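The following record pairs a protein chain with its ligand, protoporphyrin IX containing FE.
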Amino acid sequence: MAINIGSPCNTALLLFILYSVQKIVFPSASPPKEIPHEFRNGYSWLPKYHQPTVLFKTYTPKTLEPFHGNDNGRILLAIDGTVFDVTAGRNFYGPNGMYGNFAGRDASRGMAKQSFDAEMLTPVDQPLDKLTDLQPDEIENMKGWIEHFSNKYIICGKLVENDAV
Ligand code: HEM
């Protein structure tokens, strides 16, 4: 049976096929009107906002203390002069966390001696704990925690004396 290409239906179909083929063979090279912010048809895209970055900063006991997490904000703690951002461990260091006493503080002595006792924490207006009395096994213990924290959290600063900045 002969196909009547002169019928309006077939003509429309033929035009549509020709149009589709030319779109595939000669894709539009015109740039998009606005930069896409989401994945669309494989076009390369940019996220709407840059993710917040973590800056390596110098902290003192006094400037570290506000990062206690009680306000639902960032939680930082220091061990042997290295400041870690432990916000991701809010369950541990947040207000109801088992290790919340270390939040915003120099946790070196508590980590070394594996203790939550109040005297493990140096008051924030006092000079830094020099840790000179620690026993070798306690220093090893502290280093073990530093390794654990380095593998798990972001190092975001160093801790220096209050009057050093
Ligand atoms: C009754 C005694 C204790 C129990 C039952 C206990 C239990 C735990 C448990 C279950 C974890 C989570 C382990 C994981 O998921 O990787 C943990 C982590 C930890 N514990 Fe304890 N703990 C105790 C005592 C202490 C003490 C005395 C310290 C003092 C320094 C301490 C410091 C830590 C720290 C720093 C972490 C790591 C948290 C993190 O990864 O951010 N724990 N503990």
